[in-house]
Model the fold of this input.
Amino acid sequence: MVAFKPESVSEALEITDLACRRGGRLLFDGLSARVAPGGALLLVGPNGTGKSSLLRLLAGLLPAAAGSVSFGGRRAFAGHDVALKPRQTLGAELAHWARLDGGLALVPGALAAMNLAPLADVPCRMLSSGQKRRAAIARVIAAGADLWLLDEPTAGLDTASAGLLATAMAAHRAAGGIVVAAVHGDIGLDGAAVLRLG
Done:
């Protein structure tokens, strides 16, 4: 098992009375949760109830309509869109993002964890949708962040790749990291708390 050690997780993720409004519509309000280091939180609920918006809010990409989010560590987000430059090789793309996140040391392990090392020299335009999804997860791993925010991370993954994700999440949590994921089913996050929206 490859270990992904966050730099320092010294506190829990605290969500207090959180509300989100998008397009003039209140998606949710009064949401509260606490996730300790090594913990996980599953966001469940029908489509359109604000799971993706909550992840973006936790990532700092959206403002809260009310309430607060407290977390002192680093965050990494993998949404539905996989931002890969078509002409760049997969290895170069991951290295680019890892440099922005503070270093390259975790890139080889991230590629290996998601079984992408053989594709490091392949242009991103040649990757299948499942390979692109694995690349998005590898980018999160390579960021070295304390908090992983994953939006339906098993979408487009085959059984073997979903198993790689489950192993990576377990290693991250064992090192004190936190995982928050929007899901529509089991993704292999044992002992995760559940926050229902809608």
Notes: The chain has five helices and eight strands. The longest strand covers residues 25-35. Confidence is low (pLDDT under 50) at residues 5-9. The CA atoms of residues 108 and 117 lie 7 Å apart.
